[in-house]
Amino acid sequence: MDIFAHRGASGNFPENTIAAFKEAARLPVRGVEFDVHMTFDGQLVVIHDESIDRTSNGSGFIKDLTLSELKEFDFGSWFSPDFSGEKIPTLPEVLDVFSRTEHLLNIELKSDIFPYDGMVEKVLDIIQERGIESRVILSSFDHSAIQTAKNLMPQIETGALVMEVLVNPLSYLQQIPADAFHLLFPTALRPSMQEIIKQQVPIRAFTVNDPEHAALLKEAKVQAIFTDFPEEMVSFFP
Ligand code: G3P
Ligand code: CA
């Protein structure tokens, strides 16, 4: 079972910051997961929420702020004074952290709340420029974004994020089309998902911070887990 550092090593470092990614980059985990939004001036930034209110000393939606406005804010102090001065990273800045490692890069396109016109194309351009197609898994709750990505770059691996149990998951996956399901961890243990796993479709589960839950998922042959505590988890599942 593969381990992905969720939002970087976000249990011990402020999520989706360079500090959290540098920590993930030094760990022997299979990959890292992070979230992408688009600014008012069309720049791709790595942050979970659609607003900066929770994880910075500022407020407002990403879509209404320019990159230079966003760079003024502190994205570390909310977590701990030890990280004061952490800036919001751009997608290229995060990819730079992993430019000399072999980690898989799960880029979650956060276009499910605001549509971010042209975001998929910009993400694919960056992937292509850097030649990292084989290391990227694009995922989203916005399945139209996955569809657009697959149309433009058929070789890119994709994961459909779903919260609810689907009636016919396999045919839905083919319809999108996506290569895997990314699910809340209890959903990954449902019988319908076990059927999917038997058909060699990868299931990845989030967010798994309890090694006992991870053990159940490993037993169920879930392909990967996303955890906020990658260092601890990799010690249980090396
Ligand atoms: O990609 C897995 C997981 O990160 C999805 O949920 O809300 O943590 O982005 P969320
Ligand atoms: Ca995410």
TrEMBL record:
Q: Which Pfam families does the protein's record reference?
A: GDPD (PF03009)
Transmembrane ranges, per UniProt, are: none
What name does the UniProt record give this protein? Glycerophosphodiester phosphodiesterase
Residue intervals of the GP-PDE domain: 1-237
Source organism phylogeny: Bacteria, Bacillati, Bacillota, Bacilli, Bacillales
Task: Please name the source species.
Answer: Sporosarcina contaminans
